[in-house]
Amino acid sequence: MAVVVAPGITVGMRPAHAVEQAAVNLLNQGRQQAEQGQLEAAIATYSQAIQADATSAEAYFHRGIAYHDLGDYQLAIADFSTALQLRPDHPETLYNRGEAHAHMTNAEAAIADLTQAIELAPEVVQPYLDRGLVFAATGNLPQALSDLDAAIALAPENADAHYNRGKIYTELGNAEAALSDFNTALSLNPELAEAYGNRGILQYQLGDPQAAIADLRQAAALFQAQGDRQGYQQTLYFMQQVQQGSEQTP
After folding, report:
1. Which of 2-11, 148-157, 229-238 has the lowest mean pLDDT?
2. CA 103, CA 115: separation in Å to the nearest integer?
3. Which of 149, 226, 215, 144 is nearest to 181 (CA)?
4. Within 13 Å and on the Cβ side, how many CA atoms surround 115?
5. With contact defined as beta carbons under 8 Å apart, do 127 and 110 qualify?
6. Which of 29, 43, 60, 71 has minimal CB crowding within 10 Å?
């Protein structure tokens, strides 16, 4: 018996809207898995979404984030790049690819992506903060300071921005400004162990070993409570150095 096929309909093919809906359902499922910390399962589900709809920039974008969160920055960059081919000039994708490039110590690519993200969405804080850190890592402290100034202007209550600007001021030799930023960061986030540690070291350099020890003890306690063994051990080392230096001072 012959099969009559209507013009434009291919046997065995699903309607386009059904394919798109299947991809959307898989995308939503993957996002739920990612939110629950099931990153490998989320990646598998995003891959199914991509198989269902290879033009889904969102599926590539979210799979890239999952790869990033697993520490696989190369695969993350590949997915973000595909997402940008499908959806150019998307600031969030550019930001995430730039951040992944930063993890790969590819400063030039990171700065390029973060700069484009800033140009497309100048009101978003995080690209300024991350680009400032990349500039600082490459030794471009004036540009790093400019980016941290911009981040703080947009979000004055961002403790991380104040903390990182304090570090840059320390590198620039502006102890007063660094101390002010560390104080502000800690007033905004009293759990910021790194700020106590850096303020403690600065206090010692300014000739106040007692204040330094107090800050370093607080940093060590926070690192220990947060399960950061490396930060805890490093802070204990600094405490020992301060104590030894104080004992040798007449």
Report:
1. 2-11
2. 16
3. 149
4. 10
5. no
6. 71
